[in-house]
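Handout, section B. The chain below has 296 residues.
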Amino acid sequence: MMRGGIWIVALAISVFGLCGAAGQEKKPSDPLVVTDAGSKETSLAKWKISLGAEPLPWAEPAKGKAAREEWLAFRDDGSTSFVNGIVTYLPIASLRKIDYDDAKKSVTVVVFGTKETTLSGTTKFKGINKLTIEGETDLSGLGKAVVKFQGGQPKGITSIGFPSPKPIEYSSIGRPASIAANDKEKSKHQAFDLKALYKIGTANQTSGSLWFKTSVKIDLDKIASLKRLETQDKKSAESEFEVVLKDGAKHSLILQDSPMIDGKAAKLVGLYGRGPIGWKLFPAHTITELTFDEKK
């Protein structure tokens, strides 16, 4: 039975034993504080984000660890309205606060760094910026229980306060790129060291190249810019770009969504790189223009 956005799952720690993913679980002395729709605060120990966090799609498990570290997968205001839009991956260990506004269908995330950064997004779309967090709490006179809270849902939680956030690691190493999103505002995104991500079977594979129809392969480090071209066939799912190479040559090419790589059928997931905070993943259809080494 749900009351105030909370589920009582169990009254015994030993039965369920919450084991958070790497970078998520905190010490019992550092509880996370959740505020529900009724303004009631609940302290959670051994907490984890069970929905809304995921490993970086291109990352391998760290040496000596069985599981990949999980990051908060966030869709900010510039992520486009595509179901499969631009995703910003934020380190959970650096989160300070998440606030939900049910009336405005909005969410803000505060990330701790050399200066605090606040990102905002929407919760009005199904499956976008929804979150489930669970952990252990003391029920007066009953013992400890495992409970769950939801964020981004009607009458869900309004706030999450994270304990002891660690400064986010900023990095501008690698080739800089500026991406204009495929939305009405042509929102701008910055990224460093962009690479292509392809799915081959059930595995993801990083590549320094893009494939274009029918058999053109171009290394990203040879490209100066990509600009989406309008097509007469509005129903076409193909993405045609003006490709400008670093030597000045220009070509109008159709991006190969499903190339053969080393004799295996592949699927382009998108381009990814380090953002100003965290990482960013850009599916091809979200990109209107991409410029490398842009001079300010």
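Note. Residues 1-28 have pLDDT under 50 and may be disordered. Compare this with the example in section A.
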